[in-house]
Design a protein that fits this description.
The chain is mostly beta strands. Helix content is 0%, strand content 53%. The protein has 3 domains: 2-60, SH3 type barrels (Roll), CATH 2.30.30.30; 65-125, OB fold (Dihydrolipoamide Acetyltransferase, E2P); 129-186, Nucleic acid-binding proteins (OB fold (Dihydrolipoamide Acetyltransferase, E2P)), CATH 2.40.50. It contains no helices and 16 strands.
């Protein structure tokens, strides 16, 4: 049994029959009242985001989660298909539990969070940054690099990323999968 002093970022808690991951947490102390612990929680098995407050020392119910490395294979009618890198077992998962499905590339390594109580996959996390090839963008103007003007470009995964004017078709770029932002050009 855990209590509020054990809360940490990324921990998964069971509240009211649903699973939530801790995005942010803190403690409020006042001179007259008992300390309170608050947390911003994001739903793992639902799309809700909530804030919860406990009295300091209250019991919480963490869920033991295992992070396994999987490889993305392909998408079909059953969903997104992944293969466990250790057992070579294949699973099909729905788009709703994947962090950024628009950035998935075949043969890409991902982390799958598995609930150890039920052995059910809870979410799929892509690496923070990926390298992808620009397959279409409008031609850039030479010398127009002084301003931070962006243009849309389509990358090989099918996603649209806003890139600076100097980026051209066929170039490799690094993209932040959490925000979808362009980071930098990558030399081959």
């Amino acid at each position: 049994m855990a209590n509020t002093s054990d809360i940490s970022r990324g921990m998964i808690l069971k509240l009211d029959g649903s699973l939530y991951t801790v995005v942010e947490f803190g403690e409020n102390k006042t001179a007259r009242a008992a300390a309170k612990v608050w947390a911003k929680l994001k739903g793992v098995d639902n799309n809700r985001s909530i804030e919860k407050t406990w009295n300091s020392g209250d019991s919480i119910f963490p869920v033991r989660v295992e992070r396994k490395n999987f490889q993305y294979l392909y998408k079909d009618d059953t969903g997104y298909n992944f293969m466990d890198n250790e057992t070579f077992e294949q699973i099909a998962l729905q788009e709703s539990i994947i962090d950024a499905p628009q950035f998935l590339k075949e043969d890409q390594e991902v982390s799958v969070l598995v609930n150890t109580e039920t052995e059910q996959p809870m979410s799929v996390e892509l690496p923070d940054k990926i390298v992808s090839k620009v397959i279409y963008t409008e031609p850039g103007l030479r010398g127009d690099t002084a301003t931070r003007t962006l243009k849309p470009s389509k990358i090989e995964t099918g996603a649209t990323v806003m890139v600076p004017l100097f980026v051209n078709e066929g170039e490799l770029i690094r993209v932040n999968t959490k925000t979808g932002d362009y980071i930098e050009r990558v030399k081959e």
